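RESIDUES AND SHAPES:
===
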Amino acid sequence: MFKSLLMIVIFLLAGSAVAGGRPCSTPEYRQFDFWLGNWNAFDDDGKGPDIARDQISSILKGCVIRERYLQNDGHDGESFSIYDITRHVWYQSWVTNAGELLILEGHFRNGMLTMYGHNLDKNGKPVWYRATWQKQGEGVREIAYVSKDKGKSWQPDFDILFLRRRQL
């Protein structure tokens, strides 16, 4: 009897949560939508050859942004980004075909998403990361910095400009 009553309560609670509104419909979930699309990635303001192709899509009913990054040298990766409404932060997990994992969290302010995370380098030493994404003209610029002194000083890691792929 108790199990049946518990199941009914769980069912009613789950139903009321779904009926209460569309998930991921607050404006915060749309802050990073400027990155959606198919892009060529450049590390020289688009003046030289592209270094990668990047496909950014909205998945899971607009709750998650999925990145599929295909670098010309074969170093590929994927990321999943979501706004965590319970903690009021953006969250991203980044994985690569080289077995790399990076977890970032941060905030969207003044038209820019800034996220931080830390990991270990190949020698087991701690490395802190800071990455920003911001619209730039018709494109998106992603800049990353690294710190090996717990964020006291930062050095550039990469600077990528994403320009929309031309449809043929």
About this structure: Residues 5-19 have pLDDT under 50 and may be disordered.
